[in-house]
Specification:
The chain has about 290 residues and is of the alpha/beta class. About 40% of the residues lie in helices and about 15% in strands. It has 11 helices and 8 strands. Strands 1-2-3-4-5-6-7-8 form an 8-stranded parallel beta barrel, surrounded by 6 helices. Strand 6, helix 7 and strand 7 form a beta-alpha-beta unit. Helix 5 runs parallel beside helix 6 and helix 10 packs across helix 11. The two termini are about 25 Å apart.
Amino acid sequence: MSKLKESLKSGKFTITSEIGPVKGTNIQKSLDEIEPLRSKVVAFNVTDNQSSVMRIASHAVCTLLHQRGLEPIYQLTCRDRNRLALQADLLGAYVLGLRNVLALTGDHPVLGDHPEAMPVFDFDVITLLQTIKKMMEGKDWAGNSLDGAPNDFFPGAVVAPDSEPQDPQIFKMEKKIEAGAMFFQTQAIFDTGKFESFMNKVHKFNVPVLAGIILLKSPAMAKFMNENVAGVFVPDKLIKELDSVDKKDRPKKSIEIAARLIREVKNLCQGVHIMALGWEKYVPSVLTEAGF
């Protein structure tokens, strides 16, 4: 059983974080940055060409984490692979010791650094989850028997509680659960009242939810997210709070905001997923201020 699955199953408030693979081969710095979190974070998402920007492969970095005794969450997007490649990568990840898989659609290539790249999207995220479920039962998508099933995968998916209206997100969440999702990470949460309303509606599904927490670096970053990231909305009061301090004090204010959000959602969900976006060195301070 994966450490993530074990932690969530035990009812322990579970903390996950994230590592963004580098654009190149100099991976050591990224590995060193998350090392201080070893005793504080249960598992680390390894993003898969996040925002359609080409980077070193997620499964390679996941394997390096696994070899170091850290728990990876293998992000797998439908954007770059057809059904053959998705299934082959899943089998490859399993034999390398990877168990946690976060199934994602993936941003369109036009948003990234190779906008001329051809998108694949052979499968959508529901079909990908169904495929993982089928493979765990010993069959590939076409119904052929597998010589050894990846029966211990722990598949998850994402949901965006801040989206308005919430009902379509709840409908998609239910479909993902039916397809095989066993846990959820959310898009960044900034309105805890709205998040509480969402959690009251999805409590009936009895599936663990990790609330997404982003370290806001600046008012400009917050405004950019509001304009460009679907399912994320930073309230004006938080933007003004960030804007009220000098630039040199922004990390301290960001830590304060993130810790406050964690305290507010702590009793609403099963854990948090912290997206530091290059500020990994501040995550221990966030957790300390949040009471962990």
